[in-house]
Fold:
Amino acid sequence: MTNDLGAMQGLNGLAHQPLARRGLVTTGLIAGFTLAATRVEAQAIRTDMDGIEGGEVAIATAGGSMPTYWARPKGAGPFPIVLVNEEIFGVHEYIKDTCRRLAKAGYLAVAPEIYFRAGDLSKMSDIQAIIRDVILKTPDAQMLADLDAAVAWAAANHGNEARLAVTGFCRGGRNTWLYAAHNPKLKAAVAWYGPVGGTPSAIQPKTATDIAADLKAPLLGLYGGKDGGIPVDSVLAAQAKARAAGKSVEIQVFPEAGHAFHADYRPSYRADAAIAGWARMLAFFKAHGV
Structure:
């Protein structure tokens, strides 16, 4: 995927017409799954709340109150923190469940809705409109500041900022690369099929490849060998640039997986790659002190 418009060929199971399904919750997060899915697959994972707690919170930012989902183990902590970067579809049930899975693994997971100023993703199903009117109109500097705000909230709510990691999916994978070049306190980053190229703009001036030499934490990239929008060669080139600058980047390619292979609510889901990638992510976090 050289950019998000080019990524559409990898987003299987997505609709371009409005679907009357789920609405807003009080904090602005999506109730249920994204409207952009033509259907929700029966394989969608649903993680219970046994042994964990979580919910929604509004975090103060420069541009208003940012809707955020969090989940953590029960108890006082402090727990290691994992920032969860959403796809382009908002903090919906899949992202929330991902937070609960991380909580089950011992983490305080925080998923901020960084696009809340640009548009109401809970009511959007046209992918081109989402990209044009929301994603590409969200400044990277603002996105990074929002993630910093989420970290600050987590650190004040049973989180340990000294053990901080970030992960993300698709566009969130790209944002994971950028955040890994932004926050010197970060211990580890895991990007799931995040685009490393794209067309820079005044408000999004650098691609993941552009910042590869500036990474401040070890990064693991999880990619699909059959992802029609993200050439493996481009990912390996980003890795080579990072390594040439003395940075630690590991890339794992799942040969039979396409784009969004972790998105269990969509037809693109590949259980083998998703399970292996998840285990690799948790091992990577542990290896780097998170």
Q: What stands out?
A: Residues 6-287 form a domain with the Rossmann fold fold (CATH 3.40.50.1820). Residues 1-27 have pLDDT under 50 and may be disordered.
